[in-house]
Amino acid sequence: MLYDVIIIGSGPAGISAALYARRANLKVLIVSKGMSTLKKVEKIENYYGLEKPINGEELEKRGIQQAKDLGVEIINDEVINISFDSNYTVETVNSSFECQKVIIATGSSRKSPNIKGVKEFEGKGISYCAICDGYFFRNKNVAVLGSKEYALHEAEELKNVTDNVKILTNGEQLVENRSSVTDINNKQIKEFRGNTKLEEVEFSDNSTEKIDGLFIAIGTASASDLAKKLGVLLDEKNNIMVDKDMQTNINGVFACGDCTGGTLQISKAVYEGMIAALCAIKQIKDEVKK
């Protein structure tokens, strides 16, 4: 099935976008891992229409149910890649879906791991996107830092440019390994070292391994991770850059909510979700007329 719009994320921004797109009679799919930061909010009092305070988890449940009641399809899955070939393909752990427009509403960007040397070697051997930067490490020794599905996906991408790929889990348990990458190191990492560029990783037992490149893929793919795969521009704080219509520099790709930076408030997320949906709706209708 070809969806009109696929929305990644089921927080206030994503649900708001879905409500407007569905009311315009579009085929709408929300893909969400169910990890909205709204769940962590104990009490919400400063949002329009709330007679009494409400916790974030309850508000999120109401929003999701509201979207379902309207006919929005919602699946619980992890998005690991977005690509374009006449239509957009949103690839998840368990499936893939095609659409005309994509709205990224996955919240704020994930932080870098607190390991010595990471900040120093960002852009000097350390990257956050295998598709973007893997080409520069052809036939070299590279590693992926992570232990979840997203790390496995990045490792598979790197197999296209080099046979020397390993996974560093930093002491965590690796998910069921569906990857062809069999070189896995479970040791806890102490430090990344090098001179002008990354050269080796040192583990907590003082052993070391030579690596030319490291690709960080901790947890699930963040908004910025997914954006980079499409060539979407980010600002200096790793927020997705959008115009007044919440469109990125890539036609048909929108972003809204915390992933665009600024004031991290529910009202701002809801507003941006609405704007993103309205622009996507207009583009689709204009394209039909041509």
Structure description:
This protein has 290 residues and is an alpha/beta fold. It has two domains: 2-110 and 222-289, 3-Layer(bba) Sandwich (FAD/NAD(P)-binding domain); 126-216, FAD/NAD(P)-binding domain. The protein has six helices and 15 strands. It has helices spanning 12-23, 56-70, 130-133, 149-158, 223-230, 266-289; strands at 2-8, 28-32, 73-76, 79-85, 87-92, 96-104, 126-127, 142-145, 165-168, 184-185, 189-194, 198-203, 208-210, 213-216, 253-255. Strands 1, 2, 3, 4, 5, 6 and 15 form a seven-stranded mixed β-sheet that branches. It is globular.
Q: What radius of gyration results from the CA coordinates?
A: 20 Å
Q: Which series of helices and strands comes N to C?
A: EHEHEEEEEHEHEEEEEEHEH
Structural class: alpha/beta
CATH class of the largest domain: Alpha Beta
Strand portion = 15-25%
* Number of continuous helical runs: 6
> Low-confidence segments, ≥5 residues, pLDDT <50?
none
The coarse overall form would be globular
Instruction: Name the CATH homologous superfamily of the largest domain.
Output: FAD/NAD(P)-binding domain
> How many structural domains in the coordinates?
2
How many strands?
Answer: 15
Which whole number gives the mean pLDDT?
92
Alpha-carbon distance between the termini?
22 Å
